[in-house]
Structures are given as C-alpha cells and as structure tokens.
Fold:
Amino acid sequence: MFGAIAAMAWGVHDLLIRFVTRSLGTIAALFAVLGLGTVLMAVVILTIGIEVDVSTNRLLLPIVSGLAYFGACHGLYRAMAIGPFALAAPIIAAYPVLSVAWAVTTGTRPALLDWLATAAIIGGVVVVSRFAKEEETRKCSTVKAESRRDTIIASLYSAVGFAVAFAAGQAAAADQNEIAITAIARAFAVAAVLPFVFVRSKPSDPFKNPGRIVPLVLLVASLDVIAVTSVVAAGTMEAPELAVVVASSFGVITIVLARIFLKEHVAPIQWLGIAMVFVSVMILSTRY
Structure:
C-alpha cells in the first residue's frame, strides 16, 4: 500500500514539475521543492510533537538517505533536461532492481510470484517509456552522441541515488519515526543543493511570478514529501524493498495523467505496458 501511495504522489508530482521547471529553471526548481518540503516536515513535526533523535548513532543513515536523494533528483532533472524521455526514463525506473538485489544480499528471499511481479513492473515501465510518440522517436535520433552519453550517465546516478536513498531511509525507520527520518534527510538534501543555487541560478529566478508559482511549488513539495515518507514508512513492514518496486511505477502514472489532462498520445503497446504495471502493483499490494 505504501508503494502505491508513493507512486500516485510521484506520478502527479512529475506531471506538475514540468511547469515548475519551466518557470524557475532546473536547480532553482529542485531547491524550491526540497526547501518547501523541509519546511512542511518541520511544521508537521512541531504540530504533532514528533521526537527527532539527532544523536550520532542515529544520524548517519538519514544523512546518507538525504544526500543520495539529492543526487537522485539532480540526475533525474538533468537527464530529463538534456536527453529524450525514452532514453532516460527506463534507466531511472530500473532502480528497484538495485533495491531488490540489496535485499537479497542481506538475507531476504522473495517468492517466485514477487520476482515475476517485480519484473513485470520494470518491464511495463520500459515498454511505456520506450514506445513513445513517433515525433519523440525522431527527436531521439537527432540527439548528439555527447548528449546521449551525458543523459545515460545522469540517469544511472539517479537510479543509484534512489536505490541508496530508499535503502538507507528504510533501514533508519527501524529506530526512529519515519517522518523524523524524512525531515532529517530532506534538510541535508537542501544543504547539498544550496551551493548550486548560488553558483548556477540567477537571484531572481525563485521569485519569478510568485503568485502563480508558489502554490504550485507547495503542491509539488507536498506530493514529494508524501511519496518519500510512504516509502520510508514501508521500512517497518515485511519486505520493504517491494514498496520501492511498486513506487517505481510513478512514470506510468504520469503518462496516464498526461494523456487524460494534456491529451498526449499513448500508443496501443504503451497501454499494454500500463496494464502490466498496474496488475503487478495490485498483486504486490495484496501480498504486502
């Protein structure tokens, strides 16, 4: 269930982030979303009265999670900015493979049905991303080799970042409240992106059209916090790595929403991929 919540939140988040990025720029958008997310977490913690343990022995994993999440988001934003979606999305969406592989090395033994559902989710995401609109395919062929290389590199470190961030966050959830863990991780993610804001962003960028963009950034930041907290919360349940797998279907959800609200083209074979993902998500959701 937690994975499904994360997938829905990130699906809407990715649809809206396009508008935020166009208004603020990549780095400023990343800083705004992470920064507002941190503020939201602080408000929730103070309102509910959640204890945040920042002792050294409980601080390492949230820090690792936050820094890895910054790297993952930076790679995601960069890959989508410089390369075709059909090239970047399948690589980034494959991060659950690393999560499940890590779980296996630490002693977890998923059942055969779990492996099949995991493979179907990843395969469905690849199918949906690969068979893009014909116009997009033609654009992919004109991308320079250097840009394609940079896109692949950014997508790879994004996938690794997501896998590490969620593994560290879920491991930390065994000793501390998941909201507290997310807040600590988010604070260090903001600290990591801050130098890039001063170096690469114009001072006026975050304040462009504030009346229109601030509510949108607030919504996007809220969705991101809900998604990350849901994945981290799964760390207290059986087979948390499968929540990460289910959450990886967010790309498919974004495409469905774009089809509904933006009237973007979806090829028949892409609907097959979408069906693969959602059937597999339902299987895993009923089992864990």
